[in-house]
Amino acid sequence: MIAGTLKILVFESNSVNQKILAMMLKRLDQVPLIAETHQECLNHCSKIQFDLIFIAYDESDSNVQSTVLTIKEQVTELKAPRIILISSMLDKESEAFAYSWGVDECLNRPFQLQQIQSCLQETQAQGDVTVTHTSDDSEPLIDSEQLNEMAGGWDPDFCQILNDYLDDVTNMFKSLETTNVVGNEQEARRIAHSLKGSAANFGMSAFSADMARAEKALAQNMILTSDQLGRSMDLLQRSISAVRQESKR
User: Does the reported pTM lie above 0.70?
Assistant: First the structure.
């Protein structure tokens, strides 16, 4: 268990991911402060001496590095906070680059409650956190173990977050279709990245892997075909149905 309350900042612009991490921290008797922009994050850090900062990382966001470096500069006379970079998938090269900024550890989604607890415990001890990795593409439609772990007994808070997500994820995918059609690969890639991470959080492993492939294709300036998008939409709808069925058990 965690001895006492830590001062924790979560810098995450995605509202669903905010709620998931805040919910997991709440289960560990911790209440984080939330920042949605780089400036808001830096403003909080200039006023509060945090013990632990979770920073969401998206490769399309070029300001993450400068934010980490500024935080480190702000606390030269104080105990530096432990900085955990969270993402849907970081390869070894990206992790090494992040460590060069002063990041203490990298954590890949979807993560388990035990991993967050370990982050808190290691922050108190000023030790290391074990890096975890997402699974590969050869997955079943949903990861029931991940979904039930995240559900934590299917408490009302989680069920509300899940229902909100399932109601909204189809619209998120339609935004991907629209940006892809008009040739905005950068925005389409950002949406695919977000869909990949949020789907993994809720155990939709096959759709998450599908979005990882879409993100990779968009990074290579490829336009997704209508057939590809049609298959992805079908996969999404089947995944939503599977998650709803799992939630009723």
Answer: no
